[in-house]
Amino acid sequence: MGEDKPVRVSVVIPTFQEERYIGGLLSKLSAAGPGLEVVVVDGGSTDGTVEVARRFTDKVFVVNKRGIAVAKNFGGRVARGDVIVYMDTDVSPPADFADKTLRAFEDHRVVGATCNIMPLNPRVSELVFFVFYNKLLQFMTRVKPHARGEFLAVRKSAFTKVGGYDELLPCIEDHDFALRVSKLGRFRFVSDLCVYESMRRFRRSGLLSVLKTWTVDYVSYVLFRRTVSKVWVPVR
Asked: What are the two backbone dihedrals, phi and then psi, of residue 217, each rounded to the nearest 5 degrees?
């Protein structure tokens, strides 16, 4: 895609050791049609992540400093779209996600958005949890916006105005970012949009263990604006 063509949506994907997953996501994004800028920011992978990514997009960057917020900020700065959509590598978006996202931003008061997140090939316990989680997420968006890295959309102007992600947070950086962005305008829950995420972390650590970590880090963030987890350990 030429630099002179307007870009409405940029998808920013932070990666680290994601050779197994990155091709699947990028192939889906390639099928989403023209006018979509895809930016991959790698944190120093030693597998084939970067090589696979370069088969799909020429916007592949390698940063020397580790940290998911670092990668997200780099991607946000180089993105040319009016709207930036952050996605994790192991998600599967529908082909019309960009159209549905842009419709949410037709209201100029909207500065950020998230959507339904459901599990791929779920077990019953996972399905029950995510149905409840999405209901909670939709409610919280009206009161105190919350978002995860699977899908977070933001106006480029709002990203710039709040100074991007807090690079001192090893996790919950998306929630913190959504809260700060929401002070500039409306944060929407796009109810007719759903992305699917792999259950690799839940299957490796166990559903209850993941939920316990989430809860402890969230409470610590609310009380002290820091997390108990010092690093978000990759699961590959």
From this structure: -70, -35
**pTM for the whole structure:** 0.92
Q: Flag whether 205 is in a domain.
A: no
159-185: per-residue pLDDT in tens? 999 999 999 999 999 999 999 999 999
**CA dihedral sign of residues 33, 154, 188, 116:** positive
How is residue 82 written in tokens? 């009016």
Q: For residue 22, what is the domain's CATH number?
A: 3.90.550.10
Tokens standing for 44? 């120093």
**Strand bridging mode 110-119 / 91-92:** unpaired
Element (H, E) at 118: strand 110-119
Interval 58-104: pLDDT, tens: 999 999 888 899 999 999 999 999 999 999 999 999 999 999 999 99
